[in-house]
Amino acid sequence: MHSDWLEDKFRFDFEANAAWTDFLSNVIDDPKPEIVRIISHILNVHHLWIRRIKDMPVESGDWDTFEPRHFSRLNYQNFQETIDLLSENGEDRIITYINSDNEDMEKSMYDILYHILQHSAHHRGQVALLCSKEGYENRPEVNYISWSDTKNV
């Protein structure tokens, strides 16, 4: 039901994250630690939720920090695992998991996937603001409307 819609949004999310991770890995020589921490958090939380959906152990904590050189690989891994989940067409199924406060929870897979998108967008906004304050030039300009226009040309 929602798979096509979600796949499109996760493609944008992947490309938006890739624009920022490429910028911080390849354009900025030594990005500020807070910026690296937030990008790492985006990637970690996406990973954490995918693992909760799949009922698998996580490989990193939500605030663990990675070297920028690892960002691209982690972003791609998250994207591929998400697309694989969507191919199963089970986005309406209920996922039971234990949250960060060690409480038993239930949510639909769709709601969890939508949360990942919102979480990433929120923190990319923080990264954009921090990069602007640092005076980093040639920052990525990513927004969904512009991105969707280019894919329909």
Which superfamily, in CATH terms, is the homologous superfamily? dinb family like domain
Number of domains: 1
N-to-C terminal Cα separation, in Å? 26 Å
**Count of strand segments:** 2
Characterize the overall form. globular
Task: Please tag this protein with its features.
globular, metal-binding, 2 strands, mainly alpha, 5 helices, Four Helix Bundle (Hemerythrin (Met), subunit A), two-stranded antiparallel ribbon, DinB, 153 residues, DinB/YfiT-like, Damage-inducible protein DinB
Q: What's the short version?
A:
With about 150 residues, this protein is mostly helical. The chain is built from five helices and two strands, in the order αααββαα. The protein has one domain: Four Helix Bundle (Hemerythrin (Met), subunit A), CATH 1.20.120.
